[in-house]
Amino acid sequence: MNMLDQIRAAIGADAVLTGSDMDRWCQDWTGQYISQPIAVLRPRHTQHVSQIMKIAVATQTSVVPVSGNTGLNGGAHAIDALMVSLDRMNTIETIDTAGRTATVGAGVILSNLHDAAGADDLIFPLTFGARGSAMIGGVLSTNAGGSNVLRYGNTRDLVLGIEVVMANGNIMNLMGALHKDNAGLNLKHLMIGAEGTLGIITRAVVKLFPKPQAYATAMVAVASLDDALTLLHAVQEATGQSVEAFEYMPRAYIDGHLKTVAGARPPFDDTYDVNILIEVGATAPRDAQPLPDGSVPITSLLEATLGEMLDTGGVLDAVVAQNDTQRAQMWARREAAAEIAFAKRPFVDTDIAVALPDVAVFLDRMTARLATLDPTATELVVAHLGDGNIHYTAYPSRDDDTLKSAIRSAVEDEVQALAGSFSAEHGVGLSKLATMQRRKDKTALTTMRAIKTALDPQGILNPGKTIPHGDIV
Length: 473
Prior knowledge:
The protein is built from 16 helices and 18 strands. α1 runs antiparallel to α2. 34% of the residues lie in helices and 21% in strands. By secondary structure, it is an alpha+beta fold. β8 and β9 form a beta hairpin. The chain folds into four domains: 83 residues, Uridine Diphospho-n-acetylenolpyruvylglucosamine Reductase, domain 2; 119 residues, Uridine Diphospho-n-acetylenolpyruvylglucosamine Reductase, domain 3 (2-Layer Sandwich), CATH 3.30.465.10; 124 residues, Alpha-Beta Plaits (2-Layer Sandwich), CATH 3.30.70; 87 residues, Alpha-Beta Plaits (2-Layer Sandwich), CATH 3.30.70.2740. The protein is globular, with a radius of gyration of 23 Å. The relative contact order is 0.12.
């Protein structure tokens, strides 16, 4: 039998798609990466993935795992490779309310896990705009971040156990629900964020948390990013470190939202340069239960804190959501970021992180650098300001690869000068490979390559992604 016939015999003919049946997997969300796989495979369980890998090793065929295909960096791009979609491995096996964990398949859609946990008054706190299509396997493979990192941490912080199919088809079972395990190297953390280059994550045990019984959400205008950090610290102190999200949207972003999204409304009657979405989550009944006058303590506390800062000039304007509809409108503004950023072309999109006090420094320096490279270029910024993650997009005046490369290099320069990271939460994929080669610590790159070679000696797992080839410069 040829390779595809072997795979059909192993996992079922209906799980092997070719020709036009592959179309829905062959273009990523950005439209920049068009795949041409040999076939799209849709295994139903871990043993199927294992069998696929054993056949791939025997035939020396590349394998590219794909989940919701919502990545922004080409991490699931496949040319002359087997694309393994995990969408059928979508079972939420257990919700353990006592242990506050969920055991899930890699194909579980993030919003479905949110709903299942919510039925037991629990949350899986990882969240971002693509939660309706992103899958657990993908968010683990990229170590996704999102809006709630400030309180709950990145994906790595939310995972207790994983199951992984290695390049040779062997299954590595790390599915314990342990909060402490010092038994050797942390292979779980090695696999999370590896973007499918070291193994294919098939199942996971993730942490759940008490569902906030009330949210206090506001749009706040301040004079500067320094004032924004003062605001963050003040609300953290007032609420006992209960800030869940702290999102920065400058004037240009608000303008882009109004132009791009039908029915969009401005956050304030006046316009401001620095606009912040802040959300506090209350789990204690004393903070969440409405008082006889109908007020909610956590909302009243946020209002009082903002009121004091309005009086002293630390806050210029504020609107506090009074109901779920107003809260949803505030979040819709922030979650339209990808739609706004990619509405204009050509673009150079980046995903960087710096220390909190350096956010303003980076933005000031980068605005100046962009003007020297391309005087008529424009830029768009939105940031998870509470954890220093900036999504910086530049729009050059012409679609010139040399110019775009120079802009990206300028971003790298400024990030490196501030001891930051050029990849905060979206992964490396294809689009940041050159940056990895130029900017990553040489010893770190050498170590990554050694690990890749040891675990995948044929180099068939998601080849050409994340870990660059060629000379280290």
